[in-house]
Task: structure prediction
Amino acid sequence: MTSAGGGLTLLQTCALSLLVFTGASQFALVGALAAGGNPLTAAAGAFFLGVRNTFYGLRLSQLLALPRAVRPFAAQWVIDETTAVTLAQPTRRAARIGFTVTGLSLYLLWNLTTLLGALGAKAIGDTEAWGLDAAGPAVFLALLAPMLRTIIERAVAALAVLLGLGLLPVLPAGVPVLAAALAAPIALYVAGRRQTGTRNDAQEEDR
Result:
């Protein structure tokens, strides 16, 4: 709907969803084009937002251990939701099933609703007024929240939110998402320093 409302044709809108299966990148590209931005700049912002899927892929490749012939096709489904569902599974078999079912169902539904949305874009009007632009992030947060069990995991999530939101007004589209990835090493470094300090204090007391 946003794509069609931004001036893209029905064919362009559907092709974008088929080839660029990551909502954040699609919205960034379409939003920049709709605002009159340069196509190269719009593509760069979408690219930066999609880079995070590379990190997902590194983790999922070890967990799923798919055959080499299947990996290029599976890479198309490496997104926030499939990663969250896959990582929540207790076994490799369950992880593969979770990844496949989630990826296939979301890919089909995403492209079907893209087609329907493009056809009905004029009728529904501004998508932001309906809050539809927040649906994707809301789903991801709902999947992620139950996985934050330890203090470190919660600290990483909180710091990532602060970095992402804090840098959003001053950095180009997509870059704050990458900067938020620094939350993990920062939190782990602080935790390591605290553990070292605790051990040193314990050794001093023993002496």
Q: What stands out?
A: The chain has two domains: 2-147, 149-207.
